[in-house]
Amino acid sequence: MVKILLAEDDLTMVNLLETLLKMDGFEVIALDADDDVPAALQRECPDVLLLDVHLSNQNGLEILDAIRSSEQICETRIVMISGSNVKDECMKHGADGFLLKPFMPDDLIQMLKHKAKPWR
Question: Which architecture characterizes domain 3-119 according to CATH?
Answer without folding.
Answer: 3-Layer(aba) Sandwich (3.40)
